[in-house]
Backbone:
């Protein structure tokens, strides 16, 4: 039941499993597919993220960050060291700690799902926070190698963390009370987001919060978990002489657990504000067709393959406590579809994966644009509000047919724009994806 993916310098795949172990996966016959799995650790408390520190392995579990040592090289850790701890937890199944991206300065980042039940303040400590684990020199009084710092609060159920190449931290959050959409948040030090823990619910407590970079519609998605950026590994880029992921380079993959699917997200920065769009990445499975079990974690391997870890959990959707890892590899050209949507001062530009026939793509009848928002409340979820269909005044298509510039009658900051394309194709191939959901925070000047 994989919850974390990482690679050792020798190419060995390391996973953490919700069943309690850290395991090593190797390709023993040279066919490029791992076919051997061996436990590296003894049982841990719901590990939910892993990172390799040389030959040692760091793993985040319910009560702390651990380092596993295999000094004799027999493939099994004989020593475990607590590197950081101090947050609250109980026997509650969902009291996970999730991580572990690491920045260029060696800091780790961890997220703690919120506290919604009756418990002591000690057991609720730092729940709903993203934490920064900062390297420190151990002392006799405190042998831990990392100090725990509050980074960003007001999170409900953050299940995916990822750093971009600029060092900015992003986290998913799941729909529920105070969070009417699923979310992708850009976490900033000292900021707060919209969720309020149960022990914080007091008269007059309504702290200002930073809105999500991308609000992901629900129930189109129900539970967005692990995320990773599609960055081509340096060695692969050098070998190919180009980015591996084409127009998706630098975008994010998101793991949709309930619907057994993958989504894709693009970001743009306007001033100090991140905003962007989400799109389908995997197609819905046909009846009887094999698909993902329930994606929860993803990562780009050193050779550029995309690995997806899935599980079906008895306490999370009534599964049978099974799991699997799927390897995805680019295979031929992308189908015609939306590569990216970007905001403009009076509309949007839509970039395509393949050129479209210009006359057809310039017809406003092929575009549907609707905007709406949701209002956070203590109740679970929330309905779309202030829904309005936008009038597409004009469409200008680029000379190469790879982009279209839509001019709308108005732009509404704070709204999600649902953009759909109908009746367009490329050489008879249908568009996929033909839909995008753009969260407009700032209107470009």
Residues:
């Amino acid at each position: 039941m994989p919850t974390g993916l990482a690679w050792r310098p020798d190419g060995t795949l390391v996973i953490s499993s919700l069943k309690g172990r850290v395991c090593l996966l190797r390709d023993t016959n040279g066919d490029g597919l791992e076919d051997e799995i061996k436990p590296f650790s003894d049982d841990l408390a719901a590990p939910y993220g892993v990172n390799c520190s040389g030959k040692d392995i760091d793993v985040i579990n319910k009560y702390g960050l651990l380092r596993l040592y295999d000094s004799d090289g027999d493939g099994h850790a004989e020593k475990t060291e607590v590197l950081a701890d101090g947050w609250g937890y109980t026997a509650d199944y969902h009291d996970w700690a999730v991580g572990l991206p690491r920045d260029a300065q060696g800091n780790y980042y961890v997220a703690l799902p919120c506290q919604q039940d009756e418990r002591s303040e000690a057991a609720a400590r730092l729940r709903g926070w993203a934490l920064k684990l900062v390297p420190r020199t151990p002392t006799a009084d405190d042998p831990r190698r990392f100090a725990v710092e509050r980074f960003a609060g007001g999170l409900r159920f953050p299940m995916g963390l990822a750093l971009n190449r600029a060092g900015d931290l992003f986290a998913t959050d799941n729909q529920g009370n105070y969070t009417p959409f699923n979310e992708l948040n850009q976490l900033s030090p000292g900021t707060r987001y919209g969720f309020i823990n149960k022990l914080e619910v007091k008269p007059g407590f309504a702290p200002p919060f930073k809105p999500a970079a991308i609000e992901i519609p629900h129930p189109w998605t129900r539970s967005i978990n692990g995320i990773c950026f599609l960055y081509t590994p340096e060695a692969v880029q050098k070998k190919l002489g180009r980015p591996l992921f084409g127009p998706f380079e630098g975008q994010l993959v998101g793991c949709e657990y309930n619907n057994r699917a993958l989504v894709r997200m693009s970001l743009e920065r306007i001033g100090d504000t991140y905003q962007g769009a989400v799109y389908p990445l995997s197609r819905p499975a046909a009846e009887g067709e094999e698909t993902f079990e329930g994606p929860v974690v993803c990562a780009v391997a050193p050779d550029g393959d995309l690995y997806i870890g899935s599980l079906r959990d008895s306490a999370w959707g009534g599964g049978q406590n099974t799991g699997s890892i799927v390897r995805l590899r680019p295979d031929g050209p992308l189908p015609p579809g939306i590569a990216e949507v970007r905001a403009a001062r009076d509309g949007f530009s839509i970039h395509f994966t393949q050129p479209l026939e210009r006359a057809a793509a310039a017809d406003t009848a092929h575009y549907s644009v609707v905007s709406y928002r949701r209002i956070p409340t203590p109740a679970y979820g929330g309905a779309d509000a202030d829904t309005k269909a936008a009038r597409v005044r004009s469409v200008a298509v680029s000379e190469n047919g790879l982009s279209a510039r839509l001019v709308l009658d108005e732009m509404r900051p704070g709204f999600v724009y649902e953009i759909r394309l109908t009746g367009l194709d490329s050489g008879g191939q249908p568009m996929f994806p033909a839909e995008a959901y753009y969260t407009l925070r700032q209107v470009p000047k």
Q: What stands out?
A: The two ends are 47 Å apart (CA to CA). The longest helix spans residues 234-240. Helices lie at 234-240, 358-361. The mean pLDDT is 95.
